Amino acid sequence: MLGAIIGDIVGSRFEFNNHRSKDFELFGSGCFATDDSIMTLAIAKAIMEATSLVKSANDHAGFYRELSRLTVENMQQLGRKYPNCGFGGRFYGWVFSDDPQPYNSFGNGAAMRVSPAAFSANSLEDAIARSEAVTRVTHNHPEGIKGANATTTAIFMARAGASKSQIGKEISEKYYPLNFKIDEIRETYHFNETCQETVPQAIQCFLESVSFEDAIRNAISIGGDSDTVAAITGSIAEAHYGVPEDIKEEALAYLDDELLAIYNKWVAFAPPCQSDSLKQ
Ligand SMILES: [Mg+2]
After folding, report:
1. pLDDT at 153
2. Which residues are near ligand 1, the ion (C-beta closer than 5 Å)?
3. In the chain, where the domains are located
4. Ligand 1: distance of its center to the CA of 85 in Å?
């Protein structure tokens, strides 16, 4: 989850002012925590609440049902406190609706906010079920679900110790062809808010990286919807590399007290970022 928040904050000042190079200051004037961070934290809070509400570990259906309900509740409650954090038009309407319904979206918001599903799961099957539970409340278009599930799969496999080539193979076979290099798309990739034009690029930025920071720099360097591309890439890079302490400290300084409290609770709640015992 932290990797998504870092990617979002670093990318925030480049979303409408793309920077097509890997050479830049990670944090600087104009950086802020946008909707990507805030909705990621709302989902983390929903997962924590669903876990304490559904006591029986065997009640899977009950857990996923409560998780969907609490995702709606928390995305609305937290979202209404940050109306200017960068919501897209339809999602803004959903946040403030008295009767929030899924609206068949395949926007990349599905993928940028989903990482807590992958970081809290004990198996890939559980991760995908969590991903779908938090996604279908808004992004119930098949491409929306697919974007969330592809991101979740990459994160979960990285947590379980899969190599980059194993992750790339799985994503290529089950989700998106990864038949391009980021150097080839850097000049022509453009702003696009769909999952299908954001998630494969973000995954490729991770696959071609050599460190957490390098993954974030790759994501910014292709331009487009920079905060969201970097949030998705960052969430996968966190699972593979971990997050350097200095980058973590700089990013957390951008969270206000309420957001920081959710983050700190999550750190105490979430299982280890990486574990060999996870079932793929
Ligand atoms: Mg954003």
Report:
1. 98
2. 34-36, 86, 227
3. 2-21+33-269
4. 7
Q: Tell me the CA–centroid distance for residue 129 and ligand 1, in Å.
A: 25
Contact between 9 and 37 (Cβ < 8 Å): yes
Cα(133) to ligand 1 centroid in Å equals 22
Instruction: Indicate if the alpha-carbon torsion angle 109, 199, 134, 14 is positive or negative.
Output: negative
Token look-up 């918001």 returns: 109
CA distance linking residue 96 with residue 101, whole number of Å? 11
State in Å: Cα 12 to ligand 1 middle.
7
Token pair belonging to 110? 């599905």
CA 32 to ligand 1 centroid distance, Å: 10
CA distances 270 to 8, 18, 120, 221, Å, are 21, 34, 6, 31
Cα(86) to centroid(ligand 1), Å: 5
- Taking 50 as the pLDDT cut, the residues of the chain under it are none
d(CA 144, CA 148): 6
- Look at domain 2-21+33-269 and name its CATH class: mainly alpha
Q: Side chain identity at 202, as an amino acid letter?
A: A
Dihedral angle sign, alpha carbons of residues 78, 82, 83, 85 = negative
Q: What is the pLDDT of residue 279?
A: 65
Q: What is the largest CA-CA distance in the chain?
A: 52
